[in-house]
Amino acid sequence: MAVIANTKVLTLKEPWSGQVNSGKHQLITDKPESFGGQDQGLAPYDFICAGLISCTMITLRMYAQHKGIALGEFTVEADFKANKEGEEWIERRLHFVDSLSEELQKKVLDICSKTPVTKTLLRSLKINTQLV
């Protein structure tokens, strides 16, 4: 069994605020002011979206490099949504500065459905919690 990622959060003195450490990287997590936080960093669902779109961007760039395809500059954006019935979903949008052929557009959408984080989010994930 391989550890794919390891991240730790340390509580800060401000309510809802924490310092997230992953390897040599540090980020701040917080809640928006509308939820009583200081809005000093990403909220938990922002991290989920960030993981998804980061993986999408990296996977597309790796594919393009491997196939010798020039995708040019592009952005990936995601919204985490929920409705009153308790359904949750993510809407992901890609915008390419350069136009893509219809064939390449279809390939990009196919690749997006197969990124590692996409696949993780689409299947049920077991979470084991313990006090140490």
UniProtKB/TrEMBL annotation:
EC number, UniProt record: 1.11.1.-
UniProt keyword terms in alphabetical order: Oxidoreductase, Peroxidase
Listed Gene3D superfamilies: 3.30.300.20
Regions that span the bilayer: none
Gene Ontology MF terms: peroxidase activity
InterPro entries: KH_dom-like_a/b, OsmC/Ohr_fam, OsmC/Ohrsf
Pfam families, A to Z: OsmC
Protein name: OsmC family protein
Protein species of origin: Acinetobacter faecalis
